[in-house]
Amino acid sequence: MSNKFQNKGRRKFIKQASCAALGYTTIFSTLNSLKAANAAAIMNSSTLLGGDYKALVCLMFSGGNDSFNMLIPRGNAEYNEYMTTRTNQSIPQNDILPISPNTNDGKQYGLHPALGGVQQMFENGNAAFLTNVGTLVEPMTRQQYEQGTAAVPLGLYSHSDQIMHWQTAVPQDRASIGWGGKMADLMQSANDNTNIAMNISMSGNNVFQVGQNTVEYSLDPYDGSYGLLGYNDPWASSMLRKGAIDNMLDKHYTDIFKHAYVDVIRNAKSAHEEFSTALEGLSPLNTQFTDNDLSQSFHMVAKTIAMRETLGMKRQIFFIEYGGWDHHDEVLDNQMFMFGEVNNALVEFQAAMAEMGLSDCVTTFTASEFGRTLTSNGNGTDHGWGGNSLVVGGAVNGKDIYGTFPSLELDAELEIGGGVLIPTLSCDEYFSELAMWYGVTPSELPIILPNIGNFYSPGGGNPPPIGFMNI
């Protein structure tokens, strides 16, 4: 079963959930989450940026990606270990696409057979993998886990908790502010545009992009900004409604709640008009994108980046959620289809960035709430912990695997039962390097990532924690 059926309802949801498409009958319910969306951002990191452009694109594999079928041990000895543990969820050895990492640990590795384009990007130095990465409050051994002497992330195998932790980088608590939102709080002043947020979502509301002073600006992957729902519909009843809204917006209100209500509507309307005008004037890209939700999400990101100068943007963070990875059943069939869509979308997006001369300026990274069990539950896998992530872009120190690829043997050093692996790279290390490339100073990392000091000392001229980005 694919996630095509889930995606049919997603566009409708985005229209309803979007901050760029605020329905005037539901404004009050959004005021709390909007906070002070148009407040002046803190002036600090952005003063160091100069005139360059950088963008981060978060690709969230929601549901829990079985990522040890994405990056796979390929040599005979390590493959036998993999196949023995994974049994009927293993990829045939001859089907694995070989890769040749720059760093040789004595083992051979490869990729899922649907990731041919990613294989080529890896070999060309524009992609890298991080292995056995996951949510950690502090470094942990198997003995510490079993004895309960180290802090464990809250709700370790819970979808809702873990997808939140990946977006907030606060795994010991259920936080409501995302690390992408915190970066926007720090750096929003780098952009000249005050109408359209630094953080732009192709998947509606999300925790990752919510800050103290910023929220995401949501777009539809196919149509872009929707503005006020029904505002520009041509029907007579809608025209009457349009006139009533315009009349409401033209008035001055002394009541603070009415004033805030109208300001939100007015700002949403203004942002929609500005974005839509820029999109209408954009010359089409030569790069062709596949007609599915994922590729079209990347297409809209590419078009938004192409409008960066028109919109006055020097820093942007994008969020794309690709759901349906909770494969308790039919793992192999689902992965063949879904990894194929991921492969095509990433290849198309990188081609578009090369077309615009921005390959070095845009970095795409993957996230998923957890890896999955190495063991089979019969015809699928269950919720795990550590997994593998992919980073793509010209600024990536590519053609390498970062971290130590774990033993996939049951009862190995990091295996805590049922094929669940303790991560050896923390999300904090992963995210801090992306943040430093984006322009966050080392001294500001603890603001964004409160636990970073448990894994990395950001002062004293230390090198980046992992080394996968060219900073």
Low-confidence stretches: 1-44
Globally, the shape reads globular
Number of strands: 12
Strand-residue fraction? 5-15%
User: What is the helix fraction of residues, given as a range?
Assistant: 25-40%
Question: How does the major sheet shape up?
Answer: 9 strands, mixed
Q: Structural class from helices and strands?
A: alpha/beta
**Overall mean pLDDT:** 87
**SSE order:** HHHEEHEEHEHHHEEHHHHEHEEEEHH
Rg, please? 23 Å
Number of folding domains? 1
What distance lies between the first and last C-alpha atoms, to the nearest angstrom?
41 Å
- Please count the helical segments: 15
Which secondary structure elements does this structure contain, and how are they paired or packed?
Elements: H1 4-8, H2 10-17, H3 27-34, E1 54-61, E2 71-73, H4 76-86, E3 97-99, E4 109-111, H5 116-123, E5 127-134, H6 142-147, H7 159-168, H8 179-187, E6 199-201, E7 217-218, H9 236-250, H10 256-280, H11 293-306, H12 308-311, E8 315-322, H13 331-355, E9 362-367, E10 387-392, E11 400-402, E12 425-426, H14 427-438, H15 445-448
Parallel strand pairs: 1-8, 1-9, 5-11, 5-12, 6-7, 6-8
Antiparallel strand pairs: 2-4, 3-4, 5-10, 9-10
Explain this structure to me?
- The chain is α/β, with parallel strands linked by helices and 471 residues long.
- It has one domain (4-454).
- It is 35% helix and 12% strand.
- The chain is built from 15 helices and 12 strands.
- The strands form 2 sheets. Strands 1, 5, 6, 7, 8, 9, 10, 11 and 12 form a 9-stranded mixed sheet that branches. A 3-stranded antiparallel sheet has the order 2-4-3.
- Helix 11 (293-306) packs parallel to helix 13.
